[in-house]
Design a protein that fits this description.
- The chain has about 270 residues and is mostly beta strands.
- About 5% of the residues lie in helices and about 40% in strands.
- The protein is built from 1 helix and 18 strands.
- The strands form 5 sheets. Strands 11, 12, 14, 15 and 16 form a 5-stranded antiparallel sheet that branches. Strands 1-2-6-5 form a 4-stranded antiparallel sheet, with no helix packed on it. It has a 4-stranded antiparallel sheet with strand order 4-3-7-8, with no helix packed on it.
- It is elongated, with a radius of gyration of 32 Å.
- The N and C termini lie far apart (about 135 Å).
């Protein structure tokens, strides 16, 4: 009887209070970050991504603590395959007190400057929820790193009618003075009062000259050029050349006069 009484007591105790379905802690963690991207910016690699909107149950995300950024590095110009090294934490971004990275609305930007030439870096990002653990990892993005090429010198910009002709000498060395043996070409960039900066060449061009056409006359344009290395599947851009400005002018001659008449006067022939 005593055993039965004890079991009934436990059953009644378990029935007290609010009942809730058990929920695994990982089920309420944030979902995957959105729009994860990686690109080079000067002497660094820059990552940016958008906040996840849902948790792992597909419900609206109500609490987000921060983000973890992990990185791994291998020698060469391609990501590790097979027995790859483990990812290591390079940034733990707390949204309440961000010590690293920049939070811009629902977007986070992280700049990695701790890079060594001759290595390929891979990154992944995960959002952290209020239960402490990271959510699912983003896809892995990679980029090779090396010594940057020198900036092109001697850039010239000659304005014409609605066009500007650019030219520059070939870049043959890296910034450390070593020969540049993997030149992919050049990137041409332009600024004007109507645009902060625009890349005119989506992919590197081989010639050491560029003709920019369909411009507005009487508008000042500023141009810079970068040399680009090819490291495996990745492009690595050097610093900007000194900028050169040019202002296209209307060079179309006026039309000839019409209905010319010559009249004889006491002083000679008068043209009208």
């Amino acid at each position: 009887m005593s055993l039965l009484l004890a079991l009934l007591t436990l059953g009644l105790a378990g029935a007290c209070g609010k009942k809730e379905a058990p929920l695994a802690p990982e089920a309420v963690l944030p979902g995957t970050v959105r729009n994860f991207a990686l690109f080079q910016d000067g002497e660094s690699l820059v990552l940016h991504w958008d906040f996840p909107r849902e948790n792992q149950l597909g419900q609206p995300l109500t609490r987000l603590e921060g983000f973890q950024v992990q990185r791994r590095a291998v020698a060469g110009t391609s990501p590790a395959a097979g027995c790859a090294p483990d990812f290591v934490l390079v940034a733990d971004i707390d949204l309440d007190y961000p010590q690293v990275g920049r939070v811009q609305g629902d977007r986070v930007v992280f700049q990695d400057k701790n890079l060594e030439p001759g290595k390929c870096y891979s990154y992944r990002v995960a959002a952290s929820g209020r239960r402490g653990g990271p959510g699912p990892w983003s896809p892995v993005l990679s980029h090779a790193w090396g010594i940057l090429p020198r900036a092109p010198g001697g850039l010239t910009a000659e304005a014409g009618d609605r066009e500007v002709q650019l030219s520059w000498p070939r870049v043959a060395t890296l910034r450390n003075g070593a020969p540049l043996r993997d030149l992919a070409g050049y990137a041409v960039l332009r600024k004007s009062p109507k645009e902060d900066g625009r890349r005119l060449t989506p992919t590197p061009i081989a010639p050491t000259g560029y003709q920019d056409v369909a411009l507005e006359n009487e508008v000042e344009y500023t141009y810079t050029v970068r040399a680009v290395r090819r490291l495996g599947a990745y492009a690595l851009e050097g610093p900007d050349s000194p900028g050169r400005t040019a202002t296209p002018q209307d060079l179309t001659p006026p039309p000839p006069p019409l209905n010319l008449v010559a009249a004889i006067t006491p002083r000679g022939v008068e043209l009208r």
